[in-house]
Design brief:
The protein is of the alpha/beta class. It contains 21 helices and 25 strands. Bound molecules: iron/sulfur cluster.
Length: 622
């Protein structure tokens, strides 16, 4: 029997991004457990992560493109599927303009680097105002509040749970979720540790969640009254002279505008409305102010209500007024190794965020983060007139199930002229598609989290190489997205091979992309399979393989060997062919121990330096 070997990868299923140790025999997964040596999750795993193999072997997972013929979705070749998109979509764009095509990005686009980075290429190529995503269902209020307060939509302060003494949680259940807009694997263990060291956790929630059960205190309040509860907390802080900005005073603008703002929100005035005794509100305000180190955290329950943005602002206002923002044991800003607004530019300098630069056609809803609320999607499809949505791309999403009034959206999708989906399943949404492009198996994909290090309880950067090679005839999702982008941009001729996508007219294709250019350090490498060709590349893209340039340039603190989702072969060669190389960030020498490539790298911040640690015993960072 073939010997098994343990490989390592990051779990892609939720925000916790746990490190997994995957025991494999050939292509078969024998066992999945938490990786005890993972620098971030330290061995934690949940049943979803342990079921990684089930997704790989699921017979329902799509492996071949589907194209609608005579009303039925039937299997097709990749070229046939791309050709169908070209044949059906371009006439719609020519007749009705780019806004006639909408894009919906599902939740996995935040979990998969291919979709995160290359979904934007499709959007840019489409040049449509009709962009929707799962974010507007539950999290935009928090991001809007963070953007307005701190200047960036991903400048989200998260509790430093391992060092805090007091944690106030509203409308969130991290015991089950392991964090939302807060990447914190093994929340149950961390909550236990908080309580064991004498800390206190108070949960304010209309439901007795598992987080509430595990906390020191559960305060029931009426649904959607969090805004009154927090306003009463601020009122108490002001009235009882409990405000202590500390060093934050030098960074706060307009703090005096709060004077009198909460005068009407005394605990006695709002307690009846909230269903919380006034004495409890006052006591919690005093506990929050009196704790050595404290943090307030709120999530989905506070965002999916009328005052979601105001509640999100009040959460961080409480953190500010008690001096707990941006300090150890308080609510801190993660510093991701790459793609991070928190680590770019000069402090205090920037334009801030802008919203409402355009509005939805039917109900005049403003955009935020470049997106319109997905609750508008159905009416934008159904309502005739200029700008009506007639075609739709969905990327890894099932909005019929996950968005408000899914039944209406279900009916609306049936009325589209054309629909394309990138998805590994035929589901309630993709069943309406005319063409479906499947992605790869979770075992066949490289992994690097772009979004979640911006929200992590600790700074870490980890990369996982694919555990197995994908079938030769099946493209990566980034390749599919690039070809779709090429089609919608009028570069209709697609190559016949899915793996070799050399452009027949790279100059024309490039000219329609953003004009800012950058030369990538990998520009001279061979084996380019991108449609861009070589030479100067559009901003943010390398020239050799259409990889994001900022991941390929040596100035970026990414783990040794990580260049791009598509450079696995390059990395393998460079690591195994050179026995001694230095980590580009911490400068520690790397020594290859065998000819096989490293599978997975972890890196953690140590002061201002990034320390790289190989997870496999192939090479070591001395
Ligand atoms: S908590 Fe999330 S990341 Fe961790 S194993 Fe479970 S599904 Fe995967």
């Amino acid at each position: 029997m073939e010997a098994s070997e343990t490989k390592f990868r990051i779990c892609p299923f939720c925000e916790a991004t746990c490190g997994l140790a995957v025991e494999m025999r050939g292509r078969e997964v024998v066992r999945v457990r938490g990786d005890d040596d993972d620098v971030f999750s330290h061995g934690f795993v949940c049943p979803k992560g342990a079921a990684l193999a089930d997704l790989d072997t699921d017979p329902d997972r799509l492996r071949t493109p589907l194209v609608r013929r005579n009303g039925e979705l039937v299997e097709a070749t990749w070229d046939e599927a791309f050709a169908e998109v070209e044949r059906r979509l371009l006439p719609i764009i020519q007749a009705h303009g780019n806004d006639a095509v909408a894009v919906y990005l599902g939740n996995p686009t935040a979990h998969k680097i291919d979709l995160t980075l290359y979904g934007q290429v499709l959007i840019k190529g489409l040049r449509t105002r009709n962009i929707f995503s799962a974010s507007t269902v539950d999290q935009i209020p928090k991001q809007l509040a963070s953007g307005l307060m701190f200047g960036g939509y991903l400048s989200v302060a998260v509790p430093d749970i391992d060092r805090t003494d007091y944690l106030l949680v509203l409308g969130a259940n991290p015991f089950d979720s392991n964090g939302s807009l807060w990447t914190v694997p093994d929340f149950p263990g961390r909550l236990r540790a908080l309580r064991q060291r004498g800390g206190r956790c108070v949960v304010v929630d209309p439901r007795r969640t598992r987080t509430a059960q595990a906390a020191d205190e559960h305060v029931f309040l009426r649904p959607a009254t969090d805004v009154h509860f927090l306003a009463a907390i601020v009122h108490t802080l002001q009235q009882e002279d409990l405000i202590d900005l500390g060093r934050l005073a030098a960074h706060c603008n307009g703090i005096q505008t709060l004077d009198g703002l909460f005068a009407d929100f005394s605990p006695e005035a709002v307690g009846v409305h909230c269903g919380v005794p006034a004495a409890s509100i006052r006591r919690i305000a005093r506990e929050l102010a009196g704790a050595e180190r404290a943090a307030v955290y709120a999530r989905i329950g506070t965002c999916t209500q009328s005052f979601g943005t105001t509640v999100s602002w009040l959460v961080d206002l409480c953190n500010v007024l008690t001096g707990n923002l941006d300090r150890e044991g308080g609510a801190m800003f993660p510093r991701a190794a790459a793609f991070a607004a928190n680590t770019r530019g000069r402090p205090g300098v920037g334009r801030g965020v802008r919203t409402g630069r355009r509005h939805s056609r039917v109900r005049n809803a403003p955009e935020v983060m470049g997106e319109l609320p997905v609750a508008c999607l159905a009416e934008e499809i159904e309502t005739p007139g200029d700008g009506q949505i007639r075609a739709l791309f969905t990327v890894a999403g099932n909005p019929v199930l996950s968005t408000p009034n899914g039944e209406r959206l279900d009916r609306a999708l049936a009325g589209l002229d054309f629909m394309v989906s990138l998805d590994i399943y035929l589901n309630e949404t993709t069943r309406h598609a005319d063409v479906i492009f499947p992605g790869l198996s979770v075992l066949e994909e490289a992994h690097f989290d772009v979004a979640f290090p911006q929200l992590s309880y600790r700074n870490a950067a980890r990369y996982s190489a694919p555990l197995v090679d994908p079938p030769a005839d099946r493209p990566h999702e980034w390749q599919t997205l690039l070809r779709l982008a090429g089609i919608v941009m009028g570069r209709a001729r697609t190559p016949t091979s899915t793996r070799s996508t050399t452009s027949s007219s790279p100059r024309r294709f490039r000219a329609r992309l953003p004009t800012s250019t950058r030369t990538c350090s990998t520009a001279t490498r061979r084996s380019c399979s991108s449609p861009y060709g070589r030479g100067a590349a559009p901003h943010g893209w390398s020239t050799s393989r259409c990889a994001p340039a900022h991941m390929a340039t040596p100035s970026v603190p990414t783990p040794m060997g990580f260049r791009s989702p598509c450079s696995r072969r390059i990395r393998t060669v460079s690591i195994s062919a050179r026995s001694n190389r230095a980590c580009p960030r911490c400068c520690a020498p790397l020594r290859a121990r065998s000819n096989s490539p490293p599978i997975c790298w972890s890196a953690t911040w140590s002061g201002s330096a990034l320390r790289c640690t190989p997870i496999t015993p192939v090479a070591t960072c001395a």
